[in-house]
From TrEMBL:
Catalyzes the conversion of oxaloacetate (OAA) to phosphoenolpyruvate (PEP), the rate-limiting step in the metabolic pathway that produces glucose from lactate and other precursors derived from the citric acid cycle. NCBIfam families: PRK04210.1 (NF003253). It is an enzyme of class 4 (lyase). Its main location: cytoplasm. It catalyses: oxaloacetate + GTP = phosphoenolpyruvate + GDP + CO2. Binds 1 Mn(2+) ion per subunit. GTP binds at R394, R425, F519, G520, E521, N522. InterPro entries: PEP_carboxykinase_C (IPR013035), PEP_carboxykinase_GTP (IPR008209), PEP_carboxykinase_GTP_C (IPR035077), PEP_carboxykinase_GTP_N (IPR035078), PEP_carboxykinase_N (IPR008210). It comes from Gulosibacter molinativorax. This is Phosphoenolpyruvate carboxykinase [GTP]. Its EC number is 4.1.1.32. Keywords: Cytoplasm, Decarboxylase, Gluconeogenesis, GTP-binding, Lyase, Manganese, Metal-binding, Nucleotide-binding. Residues 251-606 form the Phosphoenolpyruvate carboxykinase C-terminal P-loop domain. Belongs to the phosphoenolpyruvate carboxykinase [GTP] family.
Amino acid sequence: MTSPSPVNATDIPQLSENAEVNAWVVETAELTQPAEVVWCDGSEEEYNRIANEMVEAGTLIRLNPELRPNSFLARSDAADVARVESRTFICSEKEEDAGPTNNWRAPAEMRAELNGLFEGSMRGRTMYVVPFAMGPLGGKITQYGVEITDSPYVVLSMAIMTRSGSEALSYIKPGREWVKALHSVGYPLVDAEGNARPDVEWPCNDNKYITHFPDDLEIISYGSGYGGNALLGKKCFALRIASVMARDEGWMAEHMLLIQATNPEGRKFTITGAFPSATGKTNLAMMRPKLPGWKVETLGDDIAWMRPGDDGRLYAINPEFGFFGVAPGSGYSTNPVAMETIASNTIFTNVALTDDGDVWWEGMTDEAPAHLIDWQGNDWTPESDAPAAHPNARFTVRAEQCPTISDDWQAADGVPVDIILFGGRRRTNVPLVYQSKSWEHGCFLGATLGSERTAAAEGKVGELRRDPFAMQPFAGYHMADYWGHWLEMGEVLGDKAPAIFQVNWFRRGADGSFLWPGFGENIRAIEWATQRVEGKVDAVEQPIGNLPKLEDVDVDGLDIDQATLEAIFDVPTEGWLAELDDTEEYFGKIGDKVPAQLHEQLKQVREGFTK
Ligand code: GTP
Ligand code: SPV
Ligand code: MN
């Protein structure tokens, strides 16, 4: 078999008004040697053409059009199913700027190694050029980028997850700041001897690198096709690179959902929430509230960018255009809105295939079908040991398909935020909801956020995996400086700053079961938060923050007795003192740059318990 020859540099179209973009495309093609270069226009026709090509090549499965119109299943390599934090690097000039929570490599050294890997890495493949916007086109908070990729799966996913194509390209005027995002699956279709080799269902490489060059606004990703590693507008740009831009320019790039909740009197509250990965952002963003008269509308489920507006309030946008949500656990009983959202025009990755050509995963229905093809392409029955869908199987769908999408979700300059929530998965210690005593105390809540990895004995702190502000894997610079930036934003916002609350849907009883029903019932915690903002209810001041009076929490119609309610809001002294010791140790690990205000907050909380 002869191999297709690399494209000639002179044959590559120059479609950008910005000469830097054109030059980078040519330079990248010369390095990676693809068979052709395609600039993506973002049209539906283009999407359908690429999807059809993938179906013909056997790298995408078309689902039954009668059950799941215009939808597809992709099955990844078994070793390419999630983000790879161990292979993720922040390549700032100085190591201390990456901080103790990030892997660091010197930029020149990293670039040299990547250059070797990218040389010829696209041989035999199409190199796609995908211009994209993060945020509404032309908005004040919006930023632009161009992703070069050799993965058609990435092109389709970017078409769903971002505003991509010719229109986005037209905003990258000469001299405008834009982010370079280079991606290759690292599986050229030409072997070392120059012979063609066949493609596989999910090309990738055992050697993976997800690298960020914040000083150059550049991302280079190699070897993985999975979402957070390959859809470079998402975590790589919208969080790691953007958090650095935000620090330098006085705004915030956060791992947060964005919703509006309207109470029975018709007052609307805009709420953002930082919850670690797989801790319920998508579910809360699409909540169907169980309290009569309440309405929740969706603006975003994963990332919020926030900037002070002319009136001094904090305005938020969702920079994304779609949802990349966890499939397992999403079902008609827990998240009916998600189920309606993904009824059509959806790409599913690593879910199971039903005999009639539809999808299934654990938690979608109470009972599993009698026969399935599992996420690895093998026969599966309810007797099988392994789950049918990978636990991190995902759906990719446009936000506009969400039945609860807010009319404001594309507001060019965002919506003013009233409330910020922080939540982790906590079996113990952390009550259902409480309010911070100040912005600084709110920053302490964010900085100490975490989830328990293992079961914990009641009253003792379990092994706490810290995920400050849900940004542990995503802050593009030193974690302590990032905390400092939050404190500074509080000074800028002053009394216009949003109110901050801690929430926890995951507290467990002695028998290990959840004490709180969660999901649509979480509106009851949100109701209390909004009543605090309205000044309608008092709080009980405790060392950890301001807790609700139990009679102010509406548990009408829930199967929760007084003892359970008390357990949900219990603040065990012994458990908290252990946790505060753990926090002190944790601050020590983050190092000397931890802001003094946060040490002071720790001291005050501890004094509250011991005085
Ligand atoms: P990423 O997309 O990884 O950032 O995750 P996410 O934060 O959007 O999490 P998601 O909403 O997908 O939820 C992850 C898991 O948590 C799912 O299995 C949900 O069923 C479960 N979950 C979400 N909300 C609740 C809740 O209120 N209570 C309980 N018990 N589980 C919940
Ligand atoms: C997360 O892990 O927080 C996700 C999935 O939202 S990914 O986009 O892959 O990071
Ligand atoms: Mn996420």
